[in-house]
Amino acid sequence: MTAEGEFRNAMDELVVANVRKLLGNPDIGLGDDFLAAGGNSIVAIRLGQALREELGLPRITGVILKNPVLSDLSDALRALAGEAA
Fold it and tell me: Which of 8, 16, 23, 51 is 20 to 30 Å from 35 by CA-CA measure?
């Protein structure tokens, strides 16, 4: 787990905050695996919807499932956001 002060960027903070909220676990950190922490495909859809509203990116659910470690997910979303810019 990663302490809040260890976020590398705003995307890290956004991803972790949304996962914490959806899974109801304030101890989830950047190094945690979304699926191992209790996430599943239904929660991934909800996370994708929340992130899509924040970021305006399409088709995020597949990215979540392919990158379950939150630091990897953050990196993948930053790359997608860069492509969309």
Answer: 8
